[in-house]
Each structure stands twice: as structure tokens, then as C-alpha cells.
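Record passed on here:
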Amino acid sequence: MKKYFMTLCVLLATLPTWAQAPYACVTKGAVLEYANYNEEDKVEGYSRQVIQEVTDLGGGNYDFRTTNSTIAEPGQKDEGENAFVTLGEIREGAARIAISGMNGTVDVSGSDPALLQLPNKLAVGYQLPIGDIRVSMDGLAVVATVTDNEVIGREEVTVPAGKFKCYIVKQDVEVSMMGVSAVTTTKTWYSRGIGIVKSESTMGNRLVTRTELVTFKK
């Protein structure tokens, strides 16, 4: 069960970066490596994302292909372990993602298409859309209700990859699945031309996961 909740947290934080190019990395060949922290805020591993193909269809619509893998350390030269390819598309704010090596696809759509879009102009205090996001994953239908979605700050944040000027987006999401629900609060730092620089997800006062950008090359 925890695996599904964690996957949803990642999806909800990541999808908006693809919906509008300025707050995403849409440069073919770019490499982004992240450190992933566990509930005790200790590094439990690293991950790498390589942008293989991006097709800008205009109007916030994209086709994209990325390779993803876990790596032992930043800068590792080989492909890494548990590598998989993500093929996706954004159409009118709805996303479809197919992940090789996993069961079926992950389909995402919102009651308001703008739920899956991050405007190319942000400002502190800007209220982003709220509502239901419906997710089909591994044959399960899940509803994630976004109750708060706001730009809460702007700052220059320092992570291992360097200093980046970011907007901070805070989302409160209640995920309901198989009679079980959980509420997470996720703060995500977005930088123009890169996407996610840092993210933190909590349940109550307990840290669930934290991610920081370690290296960025394009």
C-alpha cells in the first residue's frame, strides 16, 4: 500500500512540470540526478533522469520520453539499476504515462484540466486549481483530492547541484484507495528551465520523503 501512496506523491509533484515548458526541463539529452531521503531524513539512494525526446506540440501539449534509473552515486557512468523508460503525453491537461517493465500504464486526469498544469508565470499567493485527480495504476482506481494548491513563497534555494531561484508550491492531497485514505502535504521548489529542484512530503508532522537535485547537465 505504501508503494502506491509514494508513487502518487511523486506523480502529483512531477506532472505539472511537463504541462508548461518554462518550469520543466525539456532539453533533449539533459541529465538530472536526485538524492532521495527516507523518513529519518537520511539518504537512501540516488536516481537519474535522462531526457531522451521531447516534442512540443504547442498549447501546453507534449510528447516525451525519458529513461529513469537508480544509481549508486552521482555521476555514475553506467546506466544504473532498475532502469525503465517512461513514454508519456500531455493532451489538454490530461496525462498518460506508460512505463516499461511495470504492469500496464498509469493514467492521470483531472476534474479540472488545469490541475495538471503549472502556469508559466507564477507569483506568491497565486491560488492554483483544486479538485479531484483520478489515477488508474496497476488496475486500481484511485482518487486524489487536492484541497490546497498554492504558491507560498519564492526563494533562492541551495541544493548539492547549486543555487536556484525557485517558486514554492504547496499541495494538500487526500488519497483514497481500497477504503484507506491518507493526507499528505507536499512542498515543491520549481526552477524555470529545470523543473523540480527540491521536494518534501509529510503526513502530519512526520517526514515521508525528501528529494534534492544533486547534478544537472544539459
